[in-house]
């Protein structure tokens, strides 16, 4: 239990609330904002050209893979990124603390981008994607947890602060595809991957100088692992690596079924995670109820991300083959389409933050925001229908911009709110791991998006976009109907 501060001094919570030096938020948010921005620059810069690198022919600088298999690999990789948040969160909660894991993760990410840039062929893809996936997973869960430590439980700026944090993510996501796409278009894929490595190096440098000003709570290990169990953990980790290698060499894990393998692994991890938290004797009955309240949000999030993450699979194929990218006689690089969504995020994140701040306790509760987000996402998929069946270069760029604007509104209703909800609903001893649970929903949705992409047929688009759009809308309506019982489970958290 914390010591009570002297009556003539403000409490720690009061001090945090009065710190408004970073656009009305605590100044320490600037440091996490910065490293996340550069990580997103490198991540989305690389991902913007990854699918093209996999399926472009060797004469165009690519590896010449089948399009459907390549899209499945991209989806599986994205799912693996968010799946690895489980590992990062566990290490943070049991061994190192969130802040230290965040720092080491930036180093691993940079090494992954260097491998993609320097190693030729599939060797670079395998080594690079594994390192980036592990590092990005560690950074994602811990960065969000560190942001959560900057606010007291009653600070109404929390959702606004996460929206501002989300703005930093999208500043990097906007610039990354633009610059890597330009380099890929003019100098080749490996130059684009090299720029992603440089971006992560800048993020690591910036964070190295600012990490000391973060609160001590960010370095706290909530549930320390006894030192006697370290050898067991090392043995399990080694066995896991050996098992994966055996499955690869025996042909169980292949390029064409990688997305399905990741889906199965994430479902198993999510079930195990919920079971571990709910059955733990270290959480109170109120905390257990809140975890149950998080479950419908988790399922809704999976549906949302299975559509949203198709920006990096189906939409990339769509932009390469169907989109009219001619701008006054100049053909826009395909990866630039990935920068449209971040532009809207940059423009609207502040608007949403201002709305939530203005409304304060009158803003819609979290389940309502989730429901509206997944409904709007379904509408976005239905907006593809008027352009279904068109030929090459038949879809206007303005139409895709409008669809991606709808994507953005849906995203802002759910994604930053989901990050915030995970920190508010988290039991005390499972803080970072609860954030990892939210990212597991992103992982599962992303892997599903890769599997769905293998079903996309440009010659018969109506069933694809209509079915997914309707499913998403129905899911949102179901959650709207269940808002009150979900809030009852959340025990006062809105």
From TrEMBL:
<feature type="transmembrane region" description="Helical">
    <location>
        <begin position="395"/>
        <end position="414"/>
    </location>
</feature>
<comment type="similarity">
    <text>Belongs to the major facilitator superfamily. Proton-dependent oligopeptide transporter (POT/PTR) (TC 2.A.17) family.</text>
</comment>
<feature type="transmembrane region" description="Helical">
    <location>
        <begin position="462"/>
        <end position="487"/>
    </location>
</feature>
<feature type="transmembrane region" description="Helical">
    <location>
        <begin position="291"/>
        <end position="308"/>
    </location>
</feature>
<dbReference type="GO" id="GO:0005886">
    <property type="term" value="C:plasma membrane"/>
</dbReference>
<feature type="transmembrane region" description="Helical">
    <location>
        <begin position="41"/>
        <end position="58"/>
    </location>
</feature>
<feature type="transmembrane region" description="Helical">
    <location>
        <begin position="125"/>
        <end position="151"/>
    </location>
</feature>
<dbReference type="InterPro" id="IPR020846">
    <property type="entry name" value="MFS_dom"/>
</dbReference>
<dbReference type="GO" id="GO:1904680">
    <property type="term" value="F:peptide transmembrane transporter activity"/>
</dbReference>
<dbReference type="InterPro" id="IPR036259">
    <property type="entry name" value="MFS_trans_sf"/>
</dbReference>
<keyword id="KW-1003">Cell membrane</keyword>
<dbReference type="InterPro" id="IPR018456">
    <property type="entry name" value="PTR2_symporter_CS"/>
</dbReference>
<feature type="transmembrane region" description="Helical">
    <location>
        <begin position="369"/>
        <end position="389"/>
    </location>
</feature>
<dbReference type="InterPro" id="IPR000109">
    <property type="entry name" value="POT_fam"/>
</dbReference>
<dbReference type="GO" id="GO:0006857">
    <property type="term" value="P:oligopeptide transport"/>
</dbReference>
<keyword id="KW-0472">Membrane</keyword>
<keyword id="KW-0813">Transport</keyword>
<feature type="transmembrane region" description="Helical">
    <location>
        <begin position="258"/>
        <end position="279"/>
    </location>
</feature>
<dbReference type="Pfam" id="PF00854">
    <property type="entry name" value="PTR2"/>
</dbReference>
<feature type="transmembrane region" description="Helical">
    <location>
        <begin position="230"/>
        <end position="252"/>
    </location>
</feature>
<protein>
    <submittedName>
        <fullName>POT family proton-dependent oligopeptide transporter</fullName>
    </submittedName>
</protein>
<feature type="domain" description="Major facilitator superfamily (MFS) profile">
    <location>
        <begin position="32"/>
        <end position="487"/>
    </location>
</feature>
<feature type="transmembrane region" description="Helical">
    <location>
        <begin position="189"/>
        <end position="209"/>
    </location>
</feature>
<keyword id="KW-1133">Transmembrane helix</keyword>
<feature type="transmembrane region" description="Helical">
    <location>
        <begin position="336"/>
        <end position="357"/>
    </location>
</feature>
<dbReference type="InterPro" id="IPR050171">
    <property type="entry name" value="MFS_Transporters"/>
</dbReference>
<feature type="transmembrane region" description="Helical">
    <location>
        <begin position="70"/>
        <end position="92"/>
    </location>
</feature>
<keyword id="KW-0812">Transmembrane</keyword>
<dbReference type="InterPro" id="IPR005279">
    <property type="entry name" value="Dipep/tripep_permease"/>
</dbReference>
<feature type="transmembrane region" description="Helical">
    <location>
        <begin position="435"/>
        <end position="456"/>
    </location>
</feature>
<feature type="transmembrane region" description="Helical">
    <location>
        <begin position="163"/>
        <end position="183"/>
    </location>
</feature>
<feature type="transmembrane region" description="Helical">
    <location>
        <begin position="101"/>
        <end position="119"/>
    </location>
</feature>
């Amino acid at each position: 239990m914390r010591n009570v501060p002297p009556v003539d001094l403000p409490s720690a919570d009061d001090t945090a609330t009065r710190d408004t030096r970073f656009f009305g938020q605590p100044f320490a948010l600037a440091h996490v904002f910065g490293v996340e921005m550069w990580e997103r620059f490198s991540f989305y810069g690389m991902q913007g050209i990854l699918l093209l690198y996999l399926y472009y022919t060797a004469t165009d600088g690519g590896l010449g893979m089948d399009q459907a298999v390549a899209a499945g690999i991209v989806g599986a990789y994205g799912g693996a990124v968010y799946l690895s948040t489980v590992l990062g969160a566990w290490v943070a909660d049991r061994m190192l603390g969130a802040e230290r894991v965040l720092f080491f993760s930036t180093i691993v990410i940079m090494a992954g981008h260097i491998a993609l840039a320097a190693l030729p062929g599939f060797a670079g893809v395998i080594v690079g994607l594994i390192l980036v996936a592990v590092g990005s997973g560690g950074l994602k869960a811990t960065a969000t947890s560190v942001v959560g430590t900057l606010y007291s439980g009653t600070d109404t700026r929390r959702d606004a602060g996460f929206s501002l944090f989300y703005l930093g993510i999208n500043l990097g996501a906007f610039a990354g595809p633009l610059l890597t796409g330009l380099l890929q278009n003019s100098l080749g894929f490996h130059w684009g991957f090299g720029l992603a490595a440089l971006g992560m190096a800048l993020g690591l440098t910036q964070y190295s100088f600012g990490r000391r000003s973060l609160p001590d709570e960010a370095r706290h290990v909530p549930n320390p692992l006894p030192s006697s169990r370290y050898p067991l953990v090392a043995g399990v980790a080694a066995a896991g690596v050996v098992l994966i290698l055996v499955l690869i060499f025996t042909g169980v894990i292949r390029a064409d079924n990688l997305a399905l393998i990741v889906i199965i692994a994430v479902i198993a991890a999510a079930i195990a995670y919920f079971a571990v938290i709910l059955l733990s004797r270290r959480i109170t009955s109120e905390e257990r109820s809140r975890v149950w309240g998080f479950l419908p949000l988790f399922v809704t999030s999976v549906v949302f991300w299975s559509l949203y993450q198709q920006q990096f699979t189906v939409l990339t194929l769509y932009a390469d083959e169907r989109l009219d990218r001619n701008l006054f006689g100049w053909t826009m690089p395909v990866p630039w389409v990935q920068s449209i969504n971040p532009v809207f995020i940059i423009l609207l994140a502040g608007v949403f933050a201002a709305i939530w701040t203005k409304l304060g306790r009158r803003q819609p509760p979290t389940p309502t925001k989730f429901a509206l987000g997944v409904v709007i996402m379904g509408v976005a998929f239905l907006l593809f229908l008027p352009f279904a069946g068109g030929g090459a270069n038949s879809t206007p760029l303005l139409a895709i911009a409008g669809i991606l604007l709808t994507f953005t509104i849906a995203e802002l209703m759910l994604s930053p709110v989901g990050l915030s909800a995970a920190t508010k609903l988290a039991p005390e001893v499972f803080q970072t791991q609860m954030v990892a649970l939210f990212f597991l929903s992103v992982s599962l949705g992303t892997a599903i998006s890769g599997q769905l992409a293998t079903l996309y047929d440009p010659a018969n688009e109506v069933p694809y976009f209509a079915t997914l759009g309707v499913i998403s809308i129905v899911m949102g309506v179901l959650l709207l109907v269940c808002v009150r019982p979900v809030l009852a489970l959340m025990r006062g958290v809105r």
